[in-house]
Amino acid sequence: MIKGVKAFTTNAIGLVLLVNAHVALAQAFTSSGEKKHLEQFEKDIEAARESLKIPGISAVIIKDQKVLWTKGFGFADLENRVPATPDTLYSIASVTKTFASTLIMQLVEQGKLDLDEPISHYSSDFKDDSVKIRHLITHTSNGTPGEKFGYDGGRYDYLTKVIEKKTGKPFAEVVVKTFLNPLGMSESVPYHNVVEDSDKWRASLGQDHLDRYRKNLEKFAQPYTYYGAGEIVHDSYPPRDAIGAAAGLLSTVRDLAKYDIAIDRHIFVKKETQEKAWTNFVSNSGQRLPYGLGWFVTDDEGLKVIWHYGDWGSGFSAMYIKIPAKSVSVIMLANSEALADIGGWKLMDNVFGCSFLSIWGHANGCEQTSEAALAKWKEQRRALAHDAVHVDTKVLELYVGKYQFDALQNRIFTITLEGGKLFVQQNVAHSMNIELLPESQSKFFVKARPYEFIFTKTAGQAAQLDITQDGRVFHSKRIE
Description:
Layout: H1 5-25, H2 32-51, E1 56-63, E2 66-77, E3 82-83, E4 90-91, H3 96-109, H4 133-137, H5 153-156, H6 159-167, H7 171-180, H8 198-205, H9 207-216, E5 224-227, E6 231-234, E7 250-251, H10 253-264, H11 271-277, E8 296-300, E9 303-311, E10 317-323, E11 328-334, H12 338-341, H13 351-360, H14 366-384, H15 393-397, E12 401-405, E13 411-418, E14 421-426, E15 434-438, E16 443-445, E17 451-456, E18 464-469, E19 472-475, E20 477-478
Antiparallel strand pairs: 1-2, 1-11, 2-3, 4-7, 5-6, 8-9, 9-10, 10-11, 12-13, 12-20, 13-14, 14-15, 15-16, 16-17, 17-18, 18-19
Helix pairs in contact: 1-10, 2-13, 3-6, 8-9, 13-14
């Protein structure tokens, strides 16, 4: 257990009891003004959800360290009409970064870590000492370290090794024993495949935890994505096999409310340490950047807004927004990327963020810019859509087989022909059978991912397969 965890365990137990009580009593203590705010916010969420074809959203608002309001919208499972609720489980994606930031700041506060220590001390991927831990946690490690902001989850994930080396424990275990257990976040799951990896975790986490995680996963929302002119496509789950500093935690808005209250009660780090994390990083040239130490920091007409988004690109997304001066926070989780994909790190271009800030902050005029950003996003999605063409079944038969991609961790893609249509499935647990739609006689696409499957056929030889993604080409070898 990290030093300091025992010290706040008793307080955290009391915190859990208070949170649970406040959930039950919130409606009774809501003022008439707050009630109007909540009614407007509900209308805004539902209107944006319908416009963006988001199957389900769960949300919670915390005011003065109490759960003021919580609600589910739409469906966690669209096909089976399972409603989204405050207890629906989602992947929180990059909101996991705030947990990692808190762990890093704990270590700094305890004198166990210096933010100016080179990351090369923890990974041989860095060949010199120019990149410091400070640069990773502020997303300023690309190019000249400290010079400019460039959001990079892959680079941030190197903080996993820092935390594991300093604590002597796997990152998942640290998260469970620092946050989930002490705060009573009993609906959360450290990562998707933790139950399948039970032999690895039984000794350190306990069989009772694994049994609870298995039950929690029954409430895991199904993932979807927005395609073309608004088609809702059932997607596959994000990577299931790990959690790290950048992403991976699964949680509910009810559990994350406990996390938010603990942050505001300074359960994890002192107020002054938290303030350092919530201060804009200043570049080498003196420019104030949009990110602090693991959190976005935005100015809303003189009002500091602390926030983070999570976005897998498809399937799941999250928004977590805090206005410390007004002691109010909102957490929203969705089973589509559309909640957080619009606007990126420009919070007021996000229609959900704008709605919250218009009611509880300032954000004057952001409705127009956020609606424009929403319309632009939808048009970009429409423009990226492909039209499927007809390909003769005899041609499709030539592509059936198994293809191994060495550059993709030796993954095997199996191509099958069913009912005159091609499908692809990977050799990973729970992989979906996804339809390949023909763009031409040899080029195919999938609706849920920006991948292209390109088959080549030489006379007298079996077809070969390449996959392109973001300009990169992955070659395979046909093994069957």
